[in-house]
Amino acid sequence: MRYTQILFSIFLFLIVILALIPDLLHAQNDAFSTQNYAQKSLDLQKKGMIFLGSWGTLNLISGSTGYFLSENSTKYFHQMNAGWNLVNLGIAGFALYSISTIDVSSLNYSQSLSKLQNLDKILLFNAGLDIGYMATGAWLWERGLRKDSKRLEGYGKSMLLQGGFLLVFDLILYTLHNPYTKGLLSISENFQFTAKGFRIGF
């Protein structure tokens, strides 16, 4: 993998960390509010999908250009990058549309908690898939070297890069989002049930 591509990836990782970390720092300073946690979850998802879409766009452009300008395994490395990120663009676009249709004010506590917990599970599941992508990429790369197949070698390198990016991306999102889920769960700990109903203790 080219040195400039490695630097480019690290630069993008730093961008997403710097862009999203303020949400984590401010999470503990907010009042207990179901809608507040749900809205922060949606805001974080929007930032994540915009970043994923940006990554996809950059890779689609560079991959398409690199395919025609490169040779050997590098040619197929760019081809896979372009194809892979065409899917990423579709995922990001659909996710942004789905987020835009959610009315936070209409969600009750149970619905909000369910959405936040489901997102945490999806991110961890995706992280597992990402490891699988990387393992597949390593296998393709090794097989390409043994079979002297530039196509397999290039595809393997691409899957390692894209799987590695998605692994870091999903784990960062989970790390930033999980405190919202825990914060929402903590609200239920302040519910004190009595014979006539319940009251909220502070």
Account of the 3D structure:
By secondary structure, this protein is mostly helical. The protein has helices at residues 3-27, 34-69, 72-100, 109-147, 150-188; strands at residues 191-194, 197-200. It has a two-stranded antiparallel ribbon with strand order 1-2. Helix 4 packs antiparallel against helix 5 (150-188). The longest helix is centred in the middle third of the chain and has 39 residues, at 109-147. It is elongated and about 65 Å long. The model is unreliable at 27-31 and 192-202 (pLDDT under 50).
Discrete helix count: 5
**Percentage of residues in helical conformation:** over 70%
Average per-residue pLDDT, rounded, comes to 84
Q: How widely separated are the two ends?
A: 55 Å
Indicate the overall shape: elongated
